Amino acid sequence: MAQIQEYQSLVLDALEVVDFKLIREKGDINNDALTFHPAMAHQIFGESETIFGYEDLHVRVLYTAGPLHIYLGIEYSNRVNEISGGEIKADDVVSTIAQSLPDGCYFINLDEFLKTLDKADKFQPFGEKIGEYTQVSDDGTERLFEIYQCDYKSSSFLKFFGRLQTFILWFVDAASYIDTDDPQWCYFLCYEKYKNSDGQWQYATAGYTTVYEYYAYPENKRPRISQMLILPPFQKLGLATQMVESIYKFYQAQKNVIDITVEDPSEDFQRLRNFVDARFCKELKSFARAEIVKGFNKEMVREARETLKLNPHQVRKVYELLRLFYTNINEEKEYKAYRLEVKKRLNAVHYKQMKDLQKMERLKMDTEMIRARLPTVKQRMDQLQEEYTVVEQDYQKTIAKLRAL
Ligand SMILES: CC(C)(COP(=O)(O)OP(=O)(O)OC[C@H]1O[C@@H](n2cnc3c(N)ncnc32)[C@H](O)[C@@H]1OP(=O)(O)O)[C@@H](O)C(=O)NCCC(=O)NCCS
């Protein structure tokens, strides 16, 4: 009987063998330059992110660039089923991926899939246009992008969105599909508007953001940005930054919006948000240099909330960022005052813990076990310095971008 260990070389890294492509025209099928790979695959292939049983495997996951019709197929030179004389079976890759697709809607016949391209030039963005952006590359080439807001629940939109959100399992950590039956979801979509080979304008889907509009008493709402994904071929073109700005403007114009929050932001997203917020706040009166150097105050929270709909927690971050922007770090006194200010915030939870402990001790409660788990003063100082360094490095990256404007 064949031993599975004999076939170790047939254990493949899904992140390498799964090839995605966004297809604008038939010729794109053979254009390797368009291929991109998943960032993660554990939601599809399990924790090990492996596929078993093939030699020279290519898993092709193709999407038409606008409407996002999906083709799934595999190519390989040899399979463990044949090598082992039928004793061992290779993973059924197509049906494993298909389980994550909405309504089992996908093509396994490439010609049928390509036929959908014949109608792709009719594909129009869903929703209302709320922004546009021209991206200019180093060689002067211009690309045009448009941002749309969509809250209508037509079945054609929901089917399209069902296909679009299949990407998150591969590209967003800990992501899950949203419940599109819930009417409080609002959708923002980004498309590239490009001229096809016939010289006609056509749309390609570039990314999306979902926002959950929480109700707030009595007739208000607090939108929370939930998922944002810019498809890999469109990343680092400034699209997420533009989308965040458009979403802000959309909600800033609404009187009944209290503030905008973000659900569990990734590091990249938080940096991007800090940049957008700092750029907006820099123009506010309460964030003028002369005010910032005096320290954090309630007027900053009020003004940023009223005009920009920023929540207080984020306003504090932007204050720290802009204060560093204005701080001369070569002036030791100025720089030290800045560090102390940030460390005070970073230490707030620990400080509260220590106060509570002292209170318990005054009440003659036994705190020995709790104290044993706490860091010593020296350890805490070192931790704080480490935390501070991470925060400052992050702020400095954003400051460099602000200075480059
Ligand atoms: C995080 C994410 C949304 C960012 O999207 P994006 O469109 O690439 O973002 P931007 O282009 O606006 O900015 C990204 C970086 O590119 C830089 N950039 C912007 N325009 C650029 C250009 N024309 N050329 C080169 N770089 C550019 C930005 O300065 C920024 O740099 P930084 O990361 O050092 O701060 C995207 O990477 C993504 O979808 N990731 C996977 C999912 C995810 O993490 N989502 C967020 C949490 S739900």
Q: Looking at CATH, which topology of the largest domain would you report? A: Aminopeptidase
Give the overall silhouette.
globular
Give the strand content: 15-25%
Order of H and E elements: EHEHEEEEEHHHEEHHEEEHEHHHHHHHH
Mean pLDDT: 94
Enumerate the spans where pLDDT stays under 50 for 5 or more consecutive residues.
none
Number of domains: 3
In terms of structural class, how would the helical and strand content be classed? alpha+beta
The number of helical segments is 16
Helix fraction bin: 25-40%
Tell me the major beta sheet.
6 strands, mixed
CATH superfamily name of the largest domain? Answer: Gcn5-related N-acetyltransferase (GNAT)
